[in-house]
Amino acid sequence: MVTSSIDRYIPQEIEPKWQKRWEADGLYRSVIDESRPKHYALTMLPYPSGDLHIGHWYAMAPSDARARYMRMRGYNVLFPMGFDAFGLPAENAAIRHGIHPFKWTMSNIENMRRQLRSMGAMFDWEREAISCLPGYYKWTEWFFLKFYDAGLAYRKKSAVDFCPQCNTTLAREQVWGEDRHCERCGTPVIKKELEQWFFRITDYAEELLDFSQIDWPERVVTMQTNWIGRSEGAEVTFVSEREDPIVVFTTRPDTLWGATFMVLAPEHPLVDKLTTPECRQAVENYKFQAARQSEIERLSTEKEKTGVFTGAYAINPVNGERIPIWIADYVMMTYGTGAIMGVPSHDERDFEFAIKFGLPIIPVIDRRDGLAKSLVFPGSVRDGFADELRAAGIEFVTGPVGDVGEGLYVILHGDEQIDHYVELMRAYLLPNNWNEIVGARWIFIFDDGIQELNSVEADRRILARCKEIYPSVSHNRTVMEMLHSLPFYRDVLFHAEYGTMINSGPFTGTPGDVAVKKVTEWLEKQGIGKFAVNYRLRDWLISRQRYWGAPIPIVYCDKCGTVPVPYEDLPVLLPEDAEIPPSGENALKYHEGFLHTTCPRCGGPAERETDTMDTFLCSSWYQYAYLSPYYKEGDPAHSDSMPFDPKEGAYWLPVDVYTGGIEHATMHLIYTRFFTKVMRDLGLVDFDEPMLVLRNQGIILGEDSEKMSKSRGNVIAPDDLVEKYGADTVRAYLMFGWRWELGGPWDSQGIEGVSRFLERVWNCVLAPGYGGSEEPGEIEIRNLRRKVHQAIRKATEDMESFSFNTYIANLMELNNIMLKAKETPVYGTEAWEEAVKTLVLLLAPACPHIAEELWTRTGHPYSVHQQAWPVWDPEIAAEEIITLVVQVNGKVRDRIEVPADIAEEQAKELALSSNGAQRHTAGKTVQEVIYVPGRLVNIVVK
RNA sequence: GCCGAAGUGGCGGAACAGGCAUACGCGCGCGACUCAAAAUCGCGUGAGGGUGACCUCAUGUGGGUUCGAUUCCCACCUUCGGCACCA
């Protein structure tokens, strides 16, 4: 079996050899085979930037290994590859090097194909799909028309995010970070009012929140859930004094009685109508500022609230209170109804706004913690008050109050204490003074009685009284503003928790856990509001002002307006002779031949839409494109065409396992789910989710633990590594070095270890071993077989759970044990042959080339990649002798070797009589003996 | 601020479902081979103590549950990621 010449392991020789052979044989061609179960393994397609980097390898090589494992498990596996080929870098290259985006892209693809081949992955190249080829983007355009026909594509003028560097609008998902920068180039975006095309992804918001059919990582589910941002509440209709209904969305209808003002977004359509002549100028100025502000760079840290009064008033529908209507940029036109009710007592933002502009703040929800505070001003009470407090067990400290002397800072807990305090205060308060209790209760004690802060009216009354007594508070516009000037009170002036309703007319006393529901029901009955759900998710802005993308198949006709290009005329081709302006503007806008066309409806002159589609559209359906790339059946296309071969779809879909980076959690991974759900509703597929299982790999950092970048000079180039170590070593190291989902810094010494491992495997399999004449012992043979079968079990479990690092470690362990056995008479036995065969088979998914070479050299028929995954025999894998740990009071004191099937009583006996146990139980009483079969005996002593 | 993930030797990391912490690899030390070095092979390698058998401590920190906790619960600290005036 061993070849006579013990060649060295030279991956550079064997790898290209096998790659050629596999390709020539079509070994990885995946065709429909009803006799076998299918497995569609998909890994995210690369953008053809020109070079495959180590991150691509890290994503693809382990994915390939797993696809190969599934194949050995008997599945008919589809593992395709393609290129997400539209996008900006191609245009930038065109500007910089004067090379056409198409040429640039295709030559990059050529190079990347070579690099991908060097990986030795089982890609089925006959299913390759490139999104910038007309045969592909014809279908991307077709999807646009289908969405348009279904009412899911619409054009709207609105303020959208625009990247000045990329010269194009962006979807909300593509604007990242605190400074709201472009996901691609990092430039902070600006706002622009533009007519843009949108996809109605919000129609699917509710369904997109349902992850019950898919096994996706928790963090992706969480990110998508947060991104969609569902919140339940109510829509309530307020009416302006001039009878204009203003609808607000609130999650806290239970705080309605505390709404003391309204705020509209500056762009709200009612603003112009509501604004009174006196306020018009200020409102106009503010609107202008607000629009401009988003164009200036946003320094978003703790922006102070701004806003202006419109001069108009609305009536609070629950209590008839007349409340002012303001506009402010902290209210977004894009969320809810673009208008809010201001409840400053129970919303931090509204509180801040009300304090700044002197709007009344009335608490309407009780504090659940019962905390209240009171500041006793110096000289406001008779002597002995502090002693009374002490006697009553009331917590307080003495401290300076401004520069007027020593006061008492009192902290109260619960109604009983507060009532007692009020009593004391009434007895001790000196004439012409007042004292207030703030927090759990809102009580103002004057020398002639007490007043509660329970309405806007009370606010005015109390404030007037206070000003009378103490004129230096005269500048305050509300009671809360006055209280707010004392830092002691600040943390109890508002709270956002649920609690019993107070100061809320007939609802006063309603407990917090039912308040929202009760009020909502009542609102519905009254016809002034209704239950409502809001989402943070926005419709998907798909227009891009770029040349290098799939054209939006729309023409604009003076007579007929917006007219979709007929299906039969697809694709709308990108003109090849377009000149990319150095400004980076859209070349299509200046391409007369493209721009001017005839209206498909009336035949008159018309202009084409020059915006192209977000490249995320191309990648939203690529898993379907792979089934039958550039599908020709529907040529010319028709509304009822299929973008892929339904026979292929019926067999392969949906994707069983999807692998890729987490950075797409709220972009590609939401879009493709949306696409699939629309496709289902259009009757194109019969399932709800595109990918059943998703696993994310982490990121490989440079050796300096920093993100790899050319400027840092810490980039690891896979081509160099393949040249030095061979692809198998690179693949195995990428699987071994880190927890796959976490990634981490590259280690150029770590890969040496894996390289040594493969050399040891080579030698283990091929170099001659024991040459003596002793007969092998039965126990040694059993031990080897046990290890082999345990290794099969472990390798299988690890592959199932994507635990690639332990999968490799397990093979290293097996190899280490085999290397020892090799120097014994076990070498050459049947058990040895089984071990060698198993090692090669288990290694095949990770290191396909060396496995194929060793397989052939050990006399097996080509190909190792058509072999079945080994099966372990539980009986052979079972341990006969086990090490039983002997603990005394939970500490390991001894280890004893016992038969695996030892009886409990016997195990306990042996444990008790063991040296270690004896040492630590001597002179003590054994209280309990715990036996965990196969693991340990724990002796509890006292 | 909110949401999520992760903290284990010098390093990457392992540990079924609460049961031997540190598998596997890197690095390091010693040894063999060599005139020498590299490569390779062998042995050792969490910290501290003891001549020794052994003992004590150690999975971010502090508590708790348990016969027993890296694992479960509570609080906190650090790092990373996402969101961010979302009503």
Describe this protein's structure:
- With about 950 residues, this protein is α+β, with helices and mostly antiparallel strands.
- Among the domains are: about 140-200 and about 540-620, no CATH class; about 230-365 and about 515-535, Isoleucyl-tRNA Synthetase, domain 2 (Alpha-Beta Complex); about 370-495, no CATH class; about 745-875, Isoleucyl-tRNA Synthetase, Domain 1 (Orthogonal Bundle), CATH 1.10.730; about 880-940, Ubiquitin-like (UB roll).
- About 35% of the residues lie in helices and about 20% in strands.
- Strands 10, 11, 12, 13, 14, 15 and 22 form a seven-stranded mixed beta sheet that branches. A six-stranded antiparallel beta sheet has the order 17-18-16-19-20-21, with helices on both faces. A four-stranded parallel beta sheet has the order 2-1-30-31, covered by helices on one side.
- Helix 24 runs parallel beside helix 26.
- The radius of gyration is 37 Å and the shape is flat.
- It binds one RNA strand of 87 nucleotides through helix 7, strand 11, strand 15, helix 10 and helix 23.
CATH architecture of the domain at 231-363 and 513-534: Alpha-Beta Complex
CATH topology of the domain at 231-363 and 513-534: Isoleucyl-tRNA Synthetase, domain 2
| Subunit arrangement of the protein | single chain
Helical proportion, percent range: 25-40%
Largest sheet: 7 strands, mixed
What is the global morphology? Answer: flat
For the termini, the CA-CA separation is 63 Å
Strand coverage percent: 15-25%
Which residue ranges are poorly predicted, with pLDDT under 50 across at least 5 consecutive positions? 1-5, 297-301
Total helical elements: 30
Cα-atom radius of gyration:
37 Å
CATH superfamily of the domain at 231-363 and 513-534: Valyl/Leucyl/Isoleucyl-tRNA synthetase, editing domain
Question: How many strand segments?
Answer: 37
Structural class: alpha+beta
Mean pLDDT: 92
Q: CATH class of the domain at 231-363 and 513-534, please?
A: Alpha Beta
